[in-house]
Write a structure and sequence with these properties.
It contains 25 helices and seven strands. With 626 residues, the protein is mainly alpha-helical. It has a domain at 30-299: Alpha/alpha barrel (Glycosyltransferase), CATH 1.50.10.20. The strands form three sheets. It has a three-stranded antiparallel β-sheet with strand order 1-7-6, with no helix packed on it. Helix 23 (551-564) runs antiparallel to helix 24 (570-584). The chain is globular and about 65 Å long.
Length: 626
Amino acid sequence: MAADVSAEISRIVRILIRDQLPNGSWNYPFETGIVTDCYFIILLRSLEIREESLIQALAERIVQKQERNGSWKLFYDETDGNLSATVEAYTALLYSGYRSKDDDRIQAAKHFIRANGGLKKTNTFTKIMLALIGQYDWSDLFQIPVEAILLPPSFPVSFFDLSVFTRANFAPILILSDRRYHVKTSMTPDLSDQDADGVAGADLPDSDPWQPILALIRQGIQVLSGQIEPVHTDALEQAEHYMLKRIEADGTLECYFSATFLMVFALLARGYSKGDPVISRAVRGLKSMICRIKGYPHVQYTTATVWNTALIGSTLQEAGIADSSEMIRRANHYLWQRRHRHAKFGDWAIHNPEGRPGGWGFSDANTINPDVDDTAAVLRSIRFSARENETFRRAWDRGIQWVVSMQNSDGGWPAFEKGIDKPYLVWLPIEQPQDILLDPSSPDLTGRTLNFFGECTDLDTRNPLIGRGIDWLLRNQEKDGSWIGRWGICFIYGTWGAVTGLTAAGVKPEHSAVRRAAGWLRRIQNPDGGWGESCKSDVNKHYTALGASTRTHTAWALDALISSSAALTPEIERGIQFLIAAGAAPDWTADYPKGRGMAGAFYIHYHSYDLIWPLLALAHFRRKFG
Protein backbone atom coordinates (compact mmCIF):
# COMPACT_ATOMS: atom_id res chain seq x y z
CA MET A 1 0.00 0.00 0.00
CA ALA A 2 2.85 2.42 0.79
CA ALA A 3 3.98 2.45 -2.84
CA ASP A 4 0.44 3.06 -4.05
CA VAL A 5 0.01 5.95 -1.60
CA SER A 6 3.24 7.56 -2.75
CA ALA A 7 2.26 7.10 -6.38
CA GLU A 8 -1.11 8.80 -5.85
CA ILE A 9 0.56 11.65 -3.98
CA SER A 10 3.00 12.10 -6.85
CA ARG A 11 0.17 12.04 -9.40
CA ILE A 12 -1.72 14.81 -7.63
CA VAL A 13 1.44 16.87 -7.13
CA ARG A 14 2.20 16.68 -10.86
CA ILE A 15 -1.28 18.01 -11.65
CA LEU A 16 -0.85 20.91 -9.23
CA ILE A 17 2.57 21.75 -10.66
CA ARG A 18 1.02 21.82 -14.14
CA ASP A 19 -1.90 24.02 -13.08
CA GLN A 20 -0.04 26.72 -11.15
CA LEU A 21 -0.33 30.11 -12.88
CA PRO A 22 2.69 32.34 -13.59
CA ASN A 23 1.80 34.66 -10.68
CA GLY A 24 2.02 31.72 -8.27
CA SER A 25 -1.70 31.19 -7.74
CA TRP A 26 -4.15 28.42 -8.53
CA ASN A 27 -7.42 29.59 -10.04
CA TYR A 28 -9.64 26.52 -10.24
CA PRO A 29 -13.31 27.22 -11.03
CA PHE A 30 -15.76 28.14 -8.30
CA GLU A 31 -18.83 26.58 -9.92
CA THR A 32 -22.36 27.37 -8.71
CA GLY A 33 -24.65 25.62 -11.16
CA ILE A 34 -26.48 27.84 -13.65
CA VAL A 35 -27.85 30.65 -11.47
CA THR A 36 -25.13 33.20 -12.22
CA ASP A 37 -25.18 32.36 -15.92
CA CYS A 38 -28.93 32.98 -15.96
CA TYR A 39 -28.69 36.26 -14.10
CA PHE A 40 -25.83 37.54 -16.25
CA ILE A 41 -27.92 37.01 -19.38
CA ILE A 42 -30.76 38.90 -17.70
CA LEU A 43 -28.40 41.70 -16.66
CA LEU A 44 -26.87 42.11 -20.12
CA ARG A 45 -30.27 42.15 -21.79
CA SER A 46 -31.67 44.61 -19.24
CA LEU A 47 -28.72 46.95 -19.87
CA GLU A 48 -29.09 46.35 -23.64
CA ILE A 49 -25.48 45.26 -23.91
CA ARG A 50 -25.20 43.12 -27.03
CA GLU A 51 -22.62 40.49 -26.12
CA GLU A 52 -24.17 37.99 -28.50
CA SER A 53 -21.49 35.32 -28.61
CA LEU A 54 -21.27 35.27 -24.81
CA ILE A 55 -25.05 35.27 -24.32
CA GLN A 56 -25.48 32.47 -26.82
CA ALA A 57 -22.75 30.37 -25.20
CA LEU A 58 -24.19 30.91 -21.71
CA ALA A 59 -27.64 29.95 -22.99
CA GLU A 60 -26.23 26.79 -24.50
CA ARG A 61 -24.56 25.83 -21.20
CA ILE A 62 -27.88 26.33 -19.43
CA VAL A 63 -29.68 24.14 -21.98
CA GLN A 64 -27.10 21.38 -21.55
CA LYS A 65 -27.94 21.18 -17.83
CA GLN A 66 -31.69 20.62 -18.32
CA GLU A 67 -33.22 17.38 -17.03
CA ARG A 68 -35.49 15.06 -19.00
CA ASN A 69 -38.58 16.29 -17.12
CA GLY A 70 -37.90 19.90 -18.16
CA SER A 71 -36.42 21.02 -14.84
CA TRP A 72 -33.01 22.08 -13.67
CA LYS A 73 -31.44 20.69 -10.50
CA LEU A 74 -29.08 22.16 -7.92
CA PHE A 75 -27.38 18.79 -7.36
CA TYR A 76 -27.42 15.33 -8.91
CA ASP A 77 -29.77 13.58 -6.48
CA GLU A 78 -32.21 16.43 -5.94
CA THR A 79 -35.66 14.86 -6.21
CA ASP A 80 -37.51 15.74 -9.44
CA GLY A 81 -35.95 19.18 -9.89
CA ASN A 82 -35.68 22.68 -8.45
CA LEU A 83 -38.49 25.14 -9.16
CA SER A 84 -36.51 28.35 -8.63
CA ALA A 85 -33.59 27.16 -10.76
CA THR A 86 -36.04 26.14 -13.49
CA VAL A 87 -37.79 29.53 -13.45
CA GLU A 88 -34.40 31.28 -13.62
CA ALA A 89 -33.29 29.13 -16.55
CA TYR A 90 -36.63 29.52 -18.34
CA THR A 91 -36.49 33.31 -17.94
CA ALA A 92 -32.86 33.62 -19.04
CA LEU A 93 -33.30 31.41 -22.10
CA LEU A 94 -36.29 33.39 -23.29
CA TYR A 95 -34.53 36.69 -22.52
CA SER A 96 -31.45 35.52 -24.45
CA GLY A 97 -33.48 35.39 -27.64
CA TYR A 98 -31.91 32.04 -28.55
CA ARG A 99 -34.90 30.02 -27.36
CA SER A 100 -38.57 30.72 -27.99
CA LYS A 101 -41.72 29.63 -26.17
CA ASP A 102 -42.53 27.01 -28.81
CA ASP A 103 -39.16 25.29 -28.31
CA ASP A 104 -39.61 21.76 -26.95
CA ARG A 105 -37.22 22.38 -24.05
CA ILE A 106 -38.97 25.60 -23.11
CA GLN A 107 -42.34 23.86 -23.25
CA ALA A 108 -41.04 21.13 -20.94
CA ALA A 109 -39.74 23.75 -18.50
CA LYS A 110 -43.07 25.59 -18.61
CA HIS A 111 -44.94 22.41 -17.80
CA PHE A 112 -42.65 21.70 -14.83
CA ILE A 113 -43.04 25.25 -13.49
CA ARG A 114 -46.83 25.20 -13.66
CA ALA A 115 -47.04 21.70 -12.22
CA ASN A 116 -44.95 22.76 -9.23
CA GLY A 117 -46.82 25.93 -8.26
CA GLY A 118 -45.63 28.63 -10.65
CA LEU A 119 -43.72 31.80 -9.88
CA LYS A 120 -45.28 32.30 -6.45
CA LYS A 121 -43.62 29.14 -5.16
CA THR A 122 -40.09 30.23 -6.03
CA ASN A 123 -37.61 31.49 -3.46
CA THR A 124 -37.29 35.12 -2.43
CA PHE A 125 -34.24 35.95 -4.54
CA THR A 126 -35.89 34.54 -7.67
CA LYS A 127 -38.97 36.66 -6.98
CA ILE A 128 -36.79 39.76 -6.63
CA MET A 129 -35.19 39.04 -10.01
CA LEU A 130 -38.62 38.61 -11.55
CA ALA A 131 -39.80 41.88 -9.96
CA LEU A 132 -36.77 43.66 -11.43
CA ILE A 133 -37.84 42.74 -14.96
CA GLY A 134 -41.50 43.52 -14.36
CA GLN A 135 -42.72 39.93 -14.02
CA TYR A 136 -43.61 39.88 -10.30
CA ASP A 137 -45.35 42.33 -8.00
CA TRP A 138 -43.05 43.97 -5.45
CA SER A 139 -45.95 44.28 -3.02
CA ASP A 140 -46.10 40.48 -2.77
CA LEU A 141 -42.58 40.42 -1.31
CA PHE A 142 -41.62 40.89 2.33
CA GLN A 143 -41.00 44.61 2.88
CA ILE A 144 -38.65 46.39 5.28
CA PRO A 145 -38.65 50.21 5.12
CA VAL A 146 -35.49 51.67 3.60
CA GLU A 147 -35.18 53.86 6.72
CA ALA A 148 -34.07 50.73 8.60
CA ILE A 149 -30.57 51.30 7.23
CA LEU A 150 -30.29 54.40 9.45
CA LEU A 151 -30.80 52.54 12.73
CA PRO A 152 -27.48 52.73 14.64
CA PRO A 153 -25.56 49.64 15.78
CA SER A 154 -26.51 50.49 19.36
CA PHE A 155 -30.22 49.99 18.56
CA PRO A 156 -31.70 46.54 19.49
CA VAL A 157 -32.12 45.79 15.77
CA SER A 158 -29.87 47.42 13.22
CA PHE A 159 -28.61 46.97 9.68
CA PHE A 160 -25.24 45.91 11.09
CA ASP A 161 -26.78 43.01 13.01
CA LEU A 162 -27.09 41.27 9.64
CA SER A 163 -24.20 39.33 8.12
CA VAL A 164 -21.90 41.14 5.73
CA PHE A 165 -23.22 39.00 2.86
CA THR A 166 -26.79 39.98 3.69
CA ARG A 167 -25.92 43.67 3.94
CA ALA A 168 -24.20 43.63 0.55
CA ASN A 169 -27.38 42.25 -1.02
CA PHE A 170 -29.85 44.00 1.25
CA ALA A 171 -28.68 47.59 0.69
CA PRO A 172 -29.62 47.54 -3.01
CA ILE A 173 -32.81 45.57 -2.26
CA LEU A 174 -33.94 48.33 0.13
CA ILE A 175 -33.60 50.89 -2.68
CA LEU A 176 -35.30 48.68 -5.25
CA SER A 177 -38.15 47.69 -2.96
CA ASP A 178 -38.75 51.32 -1.95
CA ARG A 179 -39.01 52.38 -5.60
CA ARG A 180 -40.84 49.22 -6.72
CA TYR A 181 -38.30 49.45 -9.51
CA HIS A 182 -38.33 47.40 -12.68
CA VAL A 183 -36.88 47.72 -16.15
CA LYS A 184 -38.24 46.27 -19.38
CA THR A 185 -36.74 46.15 -22.85
CA SER A 186 -37.98 44.93 -26.18
CA MET A 187 -36.56 41.48 -25.33
CA THR A 188 -38.11 41.13 -21.85
CA PRO A 189 -40.08 37.86 -21.81
CA ASP A 190 -43.72 37.77 -20.76
CA LEU A 191 -44.11 35.26 -17.92
CA SER A 192 -47.74 36.01 -17.12
CA ASP A 193 -48.72 32.48 -18.14
CA GLN A 194 -46.44 30.86 -15.57
CA ASP A 195 -48.64 30.93 -12.44
CA ALA A 196 -50.45 27.73 -11.62
CA ASP A 197 -54.16 28.03 -10.91
CA GLY A 198 -55.17 28.15 -7.28
CA VAL A 199 -51.73 29.06 -5.86
CA ALA A 200 -52.28 31.41 -2.96
CA GLY A 201 -48.75 32.53 -2.29
CA ALA A 202 -45.23 31.61 -1.32
CA ASP A 203 -44.22 29.04 1.26
CA LEU A 204 -42.78 31.37 3.88
CA PRO A 205 -42.68 30.94 7.64
CA ASP A 206 -45.58 32.04 9.80
CA SER A 207 -45.55 35.84 9.85
CA ASP A 208 -46.46 36.23 13.53
CA PRO A 209 -42.96 35.77 15.06
CA TRP A 210 -41.36 38.58 13.05
CA GLN A 211 -44.05 41.18 13.74
CA PRO A 212 -42.28 42.36 16.94
CA ILE A 213 -39.06 42.85 14.98
CA LEU A 214 -40.81 44.92 12.31
CA ALA A 215 -42.58 46.90 15.04
CA LEU A 216 -39.23 47.59 16.69
CA ILE A 217 -37.76 48.78 13.37
CA ARG A 218 -40.72 51.11 12.82
CA GLN A 219 -40.38 52.43 16.36
CA GLY A 220 -36.74 53.26 15.71
CA ILE A 221 -37.64 54.97 12.44
CA GLN A 222 -40.21 57.12 14.26
CA VAL A 223 -37.51 58.23 16.69
CA LEU A 224 -35.20 59.06 13.79
CA SER A 225 -37.97 61.04 12.08
CA GLY A 226 -37.76 63.59 14.85
CA GLN A 227 -33.99 63.95 14.43
CA ILE A 228 -33.31 63.74 10.67
CA GLU A 229 -35.18 65.62 7.96
CA PRO A 230 -36.04 64.21 5.59
CA VAL A 231 -35.47 60.65 6.86
CA HIS A 232 -36.58 58.91 3.68
CA THR A 233 -34.23 60.83 1.40
CA ASP A 234 -31.37 60.36 3.83
CA ALA A 235 -32.00 56.60 3.99
CA LEU A 236 -31.89 56.23 0.21
CA GLU A 237 -28.65 58.19 0.07
CA GLN A 238 -27.19 56.08 2.88
CA ALA A 239 -28.07 52.84 1.05
CA GLU A 240 -26.43 54.16 -2.12
CA HIS A 241 -23.37 55.31 -0.18
CA TYR A 242 -23.09 51.90 1.49
CA MET A 243 -22.80 50.23 -1.92
CA LEU A 244 -20.45 52.75 -3.51
CA LYS A 245 -18.06 52.68 -0.55
CA ARG A 246 -17.67 48.91 -0.84
CA ILE A 247 -16.99 48.59 -4.56
CA GLU A 248 -13.75 46.72 -5.14
CA ALA A 249 -11.08 47.67 -7.69
CA ASP A 250 -12.59 45.27 -10.21
CA GLY A 251 -15.91 47.16 -10.05
CA THR A 252 -17.90 44.52 -8.17
CA LEU A 253 -19.69 45.03 -4.87
CA GLU A 254 -17.51 43.15 -2.36
CA CYS A 255 -16.67 40.55 -5.05
CA TYR A 256 -20.17 39.00 -4.86
CA PHE A 257 -22.10 38.36 -8.08
CA SER A 258 -25.57 38.69 -6.53
CA ALA A 259 -24.72 41.93 -4.72
CA THR A 260 -23.23 43.43 -7.89
CA PHE A 261 -26.24 42.34 -9.96
CA LEU A 262 -28.59 44.03 -7.48
CA MET A 263 -26.37 47.11 -7.19
CA VAL A 264 -26.61 47.75 -10.93
CA PHE A 265 -30.41 47.78 -10.81
CA ALA A 266 -30.37 49.88 -7.62
CA LEU A 267 -28.17 52.47 -9.29
CA LEU A 268 -30.57 52.57 -12.23
CA ALA A 269 -33.36 53.16 -9.73
CA ARG A 270 -31.33 56.04 -8.29
CA GLY A 271 -31.13 57.70 -11.69
CA TYR A 272 -27.83 56.40 -13.06
CA SER A 273 -27.77 55.81 -16.81
CA LYS A 274 -27.21 52.36 -18.25
CA GLY A 275 -23.86 53.54 -19.57
CA ASP A 276 -22.66 55.15 -16.34
CA PRO A 277 -18.98 54.32 -15.61
CA VAL A 278 -19.85 52.71 -12.26
CA ILE A 279 -22.28 50.35 -13.98
CA SER A 280 -19.88 49.66 -16.85
CA ARG A 281 -17.10 48.80 -14.38
CA ALA A 282 -19.46 46.49 -12.48
CA VAL A 283 -20.31 44.59 -15.67
CA ARG A 284 -16.62 44.30 -16.58
CA GLY A 285 -15.91 43.02 -13.08
CA LEU A 286 -18.53 40.30 -13.46
CA LYS A 287 -17.16 39.41 -16.89
CA SER A 288 -13.71 39.04 -15.35
CA MET A 289 -15.13 36.23 -13.20
CA ILE A 290 -15.98 34.12 -16.26
CA CYS A 291 -14.16 30.81 -16.49
CA ARG A 292 -14.57 27.91 -18.91
CA ILE A 293 -15.91 24.52 -17.87
CA LYS A 294 -16.04 21.68 -20.38
CA GLY A 295 -15.89 24.16 -23.25
CA TYR A 296 -18.64 26.50 -22.00
CA PRO A 297 -18.32 29.85 -20.22
CA HIS A 298 -19.50 30.01 -16.61
CA VAL A 299 -19.92 33.23 -14.65
CA GLN A 300 -18.48 32.49 -11.23
CA TYR A 301 -20.23 33.87 -8.16
CA THR A 302 -16.79 35.01 -7.05
CA THR A 303 -13.26 33.75 -7.57
CA ALA A 304 -11.64 31.37 -5.09
CA THR A 305 -8.05 32.14 -6.00
CA VAL A 306 -6.73 33.04 -2.55
CA TRP A 307 -8.57 30.10 -0.97
CA ASN A 308 -7.27 27.63 -3.56
CA THR A 309 -3.72 28.94 -3.39
CA ALA A 310 -3.59 28.91 0.41
CA LEU A 311 -4.95 25.37 0.66
CA ILE A 312 -2.75 24.04 -2.13
CA GLY A 313 0.37 25.79 -0.85
CA SER A 314 -0.01 24.39 2.65
CA THR A 315 -1.07 20.91 1.49
CA LEU A 316 1.90 20.59 -0.85
CA GLN A 317 4.16 21.33 2.07
CA GLU A 318 2.33 18.66 4.11
CA ALA A 319 3.07 16.28 1.22
CA GLY A 320 6.79 16.99 1.41
CA ILE A 321 7.35 19.89 -0.99
CA ALA A 322 9.91 22.22 0.60
CA ASP A 323 8.89 25.78 1.44
CA SER A 324 12.05 26.89 -0.37
CA SER A 325 10.91 25.34 -3.66
CA GLU A 326 10.10 27.69 -6.51
CA MET A 327 6.47 26.55 -6.56
CA ILE A 328 5.87 27.32 -2.87
CA ARG A 329 7.86 30.55 -2.97
CA ARG A 330 5.72 31.87 -5.83
CA ALA A 331 2.52 30.77 -4.14
CA ASN A 332 3.44 32.43 -0.86
CA HIS A 333 4.52 35.62 -2.59
CA TYR A 334 1.11 35.77 -4.28
CA LEU A 335 -0.58 35.26 -0.89
CA TRP A 336 1.57 37.88 0.79
CA GLN A 337 0.52 40.43 -1.83
CA ARG A 338 -3.19 39.77 -1.07
CA ARG A 339 -2.98 40.50 2.66
CA HIS A 340 -5.34 43.17 4.01
CA ARG A 341 -3.18 45.91 5.38
CA HIS A 342 -2.64 49.64 5.97
CA ALA A 343 -5.51 51.46 7.66
CA LYS A 344 -8.28 50.07 5.46
CA PHE A 345 -10.86 48.56 7.76
CA GLY A 346 -13.79 46.48 6.62
CA ASP A 347 -17.17 46.10 8.28
CA TRP A 348 -15.67 43.44 10.57
CA ALA A 349 -14.21 46.28 12.66
CA ILE A 350 -17.67 47.48 13.72
CA HIS A 351 -18.09 44.50 16.04
CA ASN A 352 -14.37 44.05 16.61
CA PRO A 353 -13.06 47.56 17.30
CA GLU A 354 -9.95 46.26 19.05
CA GLY A 355 -8.83 44.28 16.02
CA ARG A 356 -6.41 45.57 13.42
CA PRO A 357 -6.23 44.71 9.69
CA GLY A 358 -4.23 41.57 9.06
CA GLY A 359 -6.51 39.01 7.45
CA TRP A 360 -6.99 37.61 3.97
CA GLY A 361 -10.10 37.35 1.83
CA PHE A 362 -11.43 34.59 -0.40
CA SER A 363 -11.06 35.99 -3.90
CA ASP A 364 -8.28 37.58 -5.88
CA ALA A 365 -9.85 41.06 -5.83
CA ASN A 366 -11.04 41.03 -2.21
CA THR A 367 -9.56 43.85 -0.11
CA ILE A 368 -12.52 44.61 2.18
CA ASN A 369 -13.84 41.38 3.71
CA PRO A 370 -11.21 39.14 5.26
CA ASP A 371 -12.41 35.89 6.77
CA VAL A 372 -11.12 33.58 9.45
CA ASP A 373 -10.85 30.42 7.32
CA ASP A 374 -8.86 32.05 4.51
CA THR A 375 -6.59 33.83 6.95
CA ALA A 376 -5.76 30.65 8.85
CA ALA A 377 -5.21 28.79 5.56
CA VAL A 378 -2.79 31.47 4.31
CA LEU A 379 -0.92 31.54 7.62
CA ARG A 380 -0.55 27.78 7.43
CA SER A 381 1.05 28.12 3.98
CA ILE A 382 3.50 30.90 4.94
CA ARG A 383 4.44 29.61 8.41
CA PHE A 384 7.90 28.32 7.45
CA SER A 385 8.63 31.39 5.34
CA ALA A 386 7.71 33.55 8.34
CA ARG A 387 10.46 31.91 10.41
CA GLU A 388 13.15 32.99 7.98
CA ASN A 389 11.83 36.16 6.34
CA GLU A 390 11.03 39.33 8.28
CA THR A 391 8.53 40.51 5.65
CA PHE A 392 6.53 37.31 6.01
CA ARG A 393 6.97 37.41 9.77
CA ARG A 394 5.20 40.76 10.01
CA ALA A 395 2.32 39.45 7.90
CA TRP A 396 2.21 36.31 10.08
CA ASP A 397 2.08 38.30 13.31
CA ARG A 398 -0.71 40.56 12.08
CA GLY A 399 -2.65 37.61 10.74
CA ILE A 400 -2.40 35.73 14.04
CA GLN A 401 -3.54 38.81 15.96
CA TRP A 402 -6.52 39.25 13.68
CA VAL A 403 -7.67 35.63 13.97
CA VAL A 404 -7.32 35.77 17.76
CA SER A 405 -9.35 39.00 17.86
CA MET A 406 -12.17 37.37 15.88
CA GLN A 407 -13.08 34.74 18.48
CA ASN A 408 -16.71 35.10 19.53
CA SER A 409 -17.70 35.56 23.15
CA ASP A 410 -19.14 32.02 23.13
CA GLY A 411 -15.67 30.61 22.37
CA GLY A 412 -16.23 29.66 18.74
CA TRP A 413 -15.15 31.38 15.54
CA PRO A 414 -17.37 32.92 12.83
CA ALA A 415 -16.48 33.38 9.18
CA PHE A 416 -16.51 37.17 8.66
CA GLU A 417 -17.68 39.09 11.74
CA LYS A 418 -18.00 38.75 15.49
CA GLY A 419 -21.33 38.80 17.28
CA ILE A 420 -23.59 38.41 14.24
CA ASP A 421 -25.76 35.85 15.98
CA LYS A 422 -28.95 37.45 17.32
CA PRO A 423 -31.28 34.43 17.22
CA TYR A 424 -34.54 36.35 16.80
CA LEU A 425 -33.46 37.55 13.35
CA VAL A 426 -34.17 34.07 11.99
CA TRP A 427 -37.86 34.88 12.46
CA LEU A 428 -37.75 37.09 9.37
CA PRO A 429 -39.92 35.38 6.74
CA ILE A 430 -37.31 34.33 4.19
CA GLU A 431 -36.00 30.89 3.33
CA GLN A 432 -33.17 29.46 5.44
CA PRO A 433 -32.59 32.72 7.35
CA GLN A 434 -29.88 31.17 9.53
CA ASP A 435 -27.71 30.69 6.42
CA ILE A 436 -28.18 34.23 5.12
CA LEU A 437 -28.80 36.62 7.98
CA LEU A 438 -26.34 35.41 10.59
CA ASP A 439 -22.64 34.58 10.90
CA PRO A 440 -22.46 32.62 14.16
CA SER A 441 -19.72 30.36 15.46
CA SER A 442 -19.69 27.11 13.49
CA PRO A 443 -18.06 23.72 14.10
CA ASP A 444 -16.07 23.75 10.86
CA LEU A 445 -14.65 27.26 11.39
CA THR A 446 -13.94 26.64 15.06
CA GLY A 447 -12.39 23.24 14.41
CA ARG A 448 -10.23 24.41 11.53
CA THR A 449 -9.03 27.41 13.54
CA LEU A 450 -8.13 25.18 16.49
CA ASN A 451 -6.35 22.84 14.08
CA PHE A 452 -4.29 25.74 12.78
CA PHE A 453 -3.32 26.94 16.24
CA GLY A 454 -2.55 23.39 17.39
CA GLU A 455 -0.40 22.44 14.40
CA CYS A 456 1.23 25.76 13.52
CA THR A 457 1.69 27.59 16.85
CA ASP A 458 2.59 26.76 20.45
CA LEU A 459 -0.99 27.19 21.67
CA ASP A 460 -2.75 24.17 23.17
CA THR A 461 -5.38 23.23 25.76
CA ARG A 462 -3.56 25.20 28.46
CA ASN A 463 -4.31 28.48 26.68
CA PRO A 464 -7.72 30.06 27.55
CA LEU A 465 -8.28 30.97 23.89
CA ILE A 466 -7.96 27.33 22.89
CA GLY A 467 -9.87 26.10 25.92
CA ARG A 468 -12.89 28.24 25.06
CA GLY A 469 -12.85 26.95 21.49
CA ILE A 470 -12.69 23.35 22.66
CA ASP A 471 -15.53 23.90 25.11
CA TRP A 472 -17.67 25.42 22.36
CA LEU A 473 -17.15 22.37 20.13
CA LEU A 474 -17.94 19.95 22.95
CA ARG A 475 -21.16 21.81 23.72
CA ASN A 476 -22.27 21.76 20.08
CA GLN A 477 -21.70 18.13 19.16
CA GLU A 478 -24.76 16.35 17.76
CA LYS A 479 -26.31 13.47 19.68
CA ASP A 480 -25.04 10.92 17.14
CA GLY A 481 -21.44 12.14 17.58
CA SER A 482 -21.23 14.30 14.46
CA TRP A 483 -21.00 18.06 13.96
CA ILE A 484 -22.77 20.01 11.21
CA GLY A 485 -20.61 22.04 8.83
CA ARG A 486 -21.55 25.53 7.71
CA TRP A 487 -19.43 25.88 4.59
CA GLY A 488 -19.16 22.30 3.37
CA ILE A 489 -21.46 19.32 2.80
CA CYS A 490 -22.22 18.83 5.56
CA PHE A 491 -21.97 16.56 8.63
CA ILE A 492 -18.86 14.79 7.34
CA TYR A 493 -17.28 18.20 6.75
CA GLY A 494 -18.22 19.55 10.17
CA THR A 495 -17.10 16.37 11.93
CA TRP A 496 -13.77 16.39 10.11
CA GLY A 497 -13.17 20.02 11.09
CA ALA A 498 -14.14 19.42 14.72
CA VAL A 499 -12.18 16.19 15.23
CA THR A 500 -8.97 17.39 13.58
CA GLY A 501 -9.28 20.65 15.51
CA LEU A 502 -9.75 18.95 18.86
CA THR A 503 -6.91 16.48 18.41
CA ALA A 504 -4.50 19.14 17.11
CA ALA A 505 -5.32 21.34 20.09
CA GLY A 506 -4.40 18.57 22.51
CA VAL A 507 -7.65 16.70 23.16
CA LYS A 508 -6.81 13.02 23.51
CA PRO A 509 -8.27 10.49 21.04
CA GLU A 510 -9.70 8.68 24.06
CA HIS A 511 -11.94 11.65 24.88
CA SER A 512 -15.59 10.61 24.66
CA ALA A 513 -16.44 13.31 22.08
CA VAL A 514 -13.65 12.16 19.76
CA ARG A 515 -14.54 8.49 20.22
CA ARG A 516 -18.21 9.16 19.48
CA ALA A 517 -17.30 11.11 16.33
CA ALA A 518 -14.96 8.37 15.10
CA GLY A 519 -17.66 5.78 15.78
CA TRP A 520 -20.16 7.79 13.75
CA LEU A 521 -17.75 8.02 10.82
CA ARG A 522 -17.11 4.29 10.89
CA ARG A 523 -20.84 3.58 10.91
CA ILE A 524 -21.52 5.61 7.77
CA GLN A 525 -18.60 4.23 5.72
CA ASN A 526 -19.78 2.77 2.41
CA PRO A 527 -19.13 -0.84 1.36
CA ASP A 528 -16.57 0.35 -1.23
CA GLY A 529 -14.51 1.91 1.56
CA GLY A 530 -15.39 5.52 0.80
CA TRP A 531 -17.79 8.08 2.18
CA GLY A 532 -20.39 10.24 0.43
CA GLU A 533 -22.97 12.71 1.70
CA SER A 534 -25.94 14.23 -0.10
CA CYS A 535 -26.66 17.95 -0.27
CA LYS A 536 -30.04 16.89 1.14
CA SER A 537 -28.33 16.81 4.55
CA ASP A 538 -28.21 20.58 4.30
CA VAL A 539 -31.97 20.82 3.96
CA ASN A 540 -32.92 17.92 6.22
CA LYS A 541 -30.55 19.03 9.02
CA HIS A 542 -29.51 15.43 9.56
CA TYR A 543 -27.02 13.19 7.79
CA THR A 544 -28.31 11.90 4.45
CA ALA A 545 -26.21 9.42 2.50
CA LEU A 546 -25.44 10.17 -1.13
CA GLY A 547 -25.60 6.54 -2.15
CA ALA A 548 -22.12 6.76 -3.63
CA SER A 549 -18.64 7.64 -2.39
CA THR A 550 -16.78 10.83 -3.31
CA ARG A 551 -13.06 11.48 -3.07
CA THR A 552 -13.57 14.67 -1.09
CA HIS A 553 -15.94 13.22 1.52
CA THR A 554 -13.69 10.19 1.82
CA ALA A 555 -10.64 12.39 2.37
CA TRP A 556 -12.40 14.40 5.09
CA ALA A 557 -13.60 11.28 6.91
CA LEU A 558 -10.20 9.60 6.57
CA ASP A 559 -8.31 12.61 7.85
CA ALA A 560 -10.53 12.70 10.94
CA LEU A 561 -9.98 8.99 11.60
CA ILE A 562 -6.24 9.26 10.99
CA SER A 563 -5.96 12.12 13.47
CA SER A 564 -7.89 10.22 16.15
CA SER A 565 -6.47 6.71 15.70
CA ALA A 566 -3.35 5.41 17.39
CA ALA A 567 -3.04 2.50 14.99
CA LEU A 568 -3.99 1.63 11.45
CA THR A 569 -7.59 0.36 11.35
CA PRO A 570 -9.48 -1.59 8.68
CA GLU A 571 -11.71 1.45 8.05
CA ILE A 572 -8.70 3.67 7.34
CA GLU A 573 -7.08 1.05 5.16
CA ARG A 574 -10.24 0.58 3.07
CA GLY A 575 -10.67 4.34 2.77
CA ILE A 576 -7.12 4.76 1.48
CA GLN A 577 -7.69 2.00 -1.06
CA PHE A 578 -10.83 3.78 -2.28
CA LEU A 579 -8.97 7.09 -2.69
CA ILE A 580 -6.27 5.47 -4.77
CA ALA A 581 -8.71 3.58 -6.97
CA ALA A 582 -11.10 6.53 -7.43
CA GLY A 583 -8.28 8.81 -8.50
CA ALA A 584 -7.65 6.68 -11.56
CA ALA A 585 -11.27 6.67 -12.75
CA PRO A 586 -13.33 9.69 -11.63
CA ASP A 587 -17.10 9.53 -12.18
CA TRP A 588 -20.11 11.86 -11.71
CA THR A 589 -19.27 12.28 -8.03
CA ALA A 590 -16.27 14.42 -9.03
CA ASP A 591 -18.70 17.15 -10.11
CA TYR A 592 -20.99 16.84 -7.10
CA PRO A 593 -21.12 20.00 -4.93
CA LYS A 594 -19.07 19.78 -1.74
CA GLY A 595 -19.46 23.44 -0.76
CA ARG A 596 -22.46 24.83 1.06
CA GLY A 597 -23.84 28.32 0.53
CA MET A 598 -27.55 28.36 1.39
CA ALA A 599 -29.63 25.31 2.17
CA GLY A 600 -31.86 24.33 -0.73
CA ALA A 601 -30.70 27.19 -2.93
CA PHE A 602 -26.94 27.59 -3.34
CA TYR A 603 -24.24 24.92 -3.58
CA ILE A 604 -20.64 25.06 -4.74
CA HIS A 605 -18.51 22.68 -6.77
CA TYR A 606 -14.87 23.46 -5.99
CA HIS A 607 -12.86 22.04 -8.86
CA SER A 608 -9.79 21.91 -6.63
CA TYR A 609 -11.24 19.82 -3.82
CA ASP A 610 -10.75 16.36 -5.34
CA LEU A 611 -7.05 17.20 -5.51
CA ILE A 612 -6.48 19.09 -2.25
CA TRP A 613 -8.25 16.97 0.34
CA PRO A 614 -7.15 13.52 -0.93
CA LEU A 615 -3.57 14.82 -1.05
CA LEU A 616 -3.85 16.04 2.53
CA ALA A 617 -5.34 12.78 3.82
CA LEU A 618 -2.75 10.69 1.98
CA ALA A 619 0.10 12.86 3.27
CA HIS A 620 -1.17 12.55 6.85
CA PHE A 621 -1.59 8.79 6.41
CA ARG A 622 1.97 8.40 5.11
CA ARG A 623 3.38 10.51 7.93
CA LYS A 624 1.55 8.64 10.69
CA PHE A 625 1.48 5.08 9.41
CA GLY A 626 4.40 5.01 6.98
